């Protein structure tokens, strides 16, 4: 992740996006590490999961493999094409649209899942309120974010995201991810975490 990543041409990036270890999860150990974490963040029973900024559908696929129904939204048509191909034949739908105001009409979800996207969106407090409104009663936000880099770090520190969530969630659990090299395919020194936020 870099400062310029907030202004990336994601259509141009789509073809090679999965080459990063934590993007494509092509290494079975890395894939298993993410699958195990995701299982802990998602409800035990089959749920409707909205994956915002879904990219090539990597987490969408893990969620579908765990028995959940997935809707993915991404601004990049090229990413959406790859996600559709990756989840072909599964209980999943993909839409081109803005993660800040996803084009899902009156549909409501058990989980809004977002990895490495919130930090790039303008006015995250407003976005979190909107996402909260997309949840069914008892639903949860699962947000995987970080603050990447050491010289000019970019992203959202967990403390800041916890503050932003205070008005929209009664219970916020932060899980540190930096100390698990299996998730990233390498040792990392910067701040990486997941937040599960519920009523
Ligand atoms: C770092 S990638 C993360 C992809 C995916 N969440 C994952 O973890 O593999 C960021 C993704 O967010 C998408 N994106 C960026 N801004 C967006 C926006 N405003 N609305 C929807 N998608 C957006 C990009 O097209 C890209 O697919």
What is the CATH first-level class name? Alpha Beta
Instruction: Give the CATH superfamily.
Output: Vaccinia Virus protein VP39
Q: Strand tally, please?
A: 8
Return the CATH topology. Rossmann fold
How large is the radius of gyration? 15 Å
Beta-strand content estimate? 25-35%
Overall outline = globular
Number of domains: 1
- Helix/strand order: HHHEHEHEEHEEHEHE
Query: Approximately how much helix is present in the residues?
Result: 25-40%
Any overview of this molecule?
There is one protein chain. The chain is an alpha/beta fold and 199 residues long. It has one domain: 3-Layer(aba) Sandwich (Rossmann fold). The chain has helices spanning 10-17, 21-24, 28-41, 58-65, 77-86, 124-133, 158-165, 181-184, and strands spanning 48-52, 69-74, 92-96, 109-115, 135-148, 154-155, 171-176, 191-198. Strands 1, 2, 3, 4, 5, 6, 7 and 8 form an eight-stranded mixed beta sheet that branches. A hairpin with a 5-residue loop joins strand 5 (135-148) and strand 6 (154-155). Helix 1 (10-17) runs parallel beside helix 5. The mean pLDDT is 96.
């Amino acid at each position: 992740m870099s400062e310029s990543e907030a202004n990336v041409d994601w259509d141009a990036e789509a073809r090679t996006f999965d080459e990063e270890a934590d993007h494509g999860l092509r290494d079975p150990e890395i894939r298993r590490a993410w699958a195990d974490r995701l299982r802990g963040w998602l409800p035990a029973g089959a749920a409707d999961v909205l994956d915002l900024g879904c990219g090539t559908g990597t987490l969408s696929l893990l969620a579908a493999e765990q028995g959940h129904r997935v809707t993915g939204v991404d601004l990049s048509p090229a990413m959406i094409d790859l996600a559709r191909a990756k989840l072909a034949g599964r209980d999943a739908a993909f839409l081109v649209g803005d993660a800040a105001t996803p084009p899902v009409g009156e549909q409501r979800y058990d989980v809004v899942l977002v990895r490495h996207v919130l930090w790039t969106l303008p006015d995250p407090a407003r976005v979190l309120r909107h996402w909260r409104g997309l949840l069914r009663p008892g639903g949860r936000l699962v947000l995987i974010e970080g603050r990447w880099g050491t010289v000019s770090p970019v992203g959202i520190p967990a403390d800041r995201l916890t503050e932003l969530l205070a008005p929209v969630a009664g219970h916020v659990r932060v899980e540190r991810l930096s100390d698990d090299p299996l998730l990233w395919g390498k040792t990392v020194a910067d701040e990486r975490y997941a937040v599960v936020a519920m009523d």
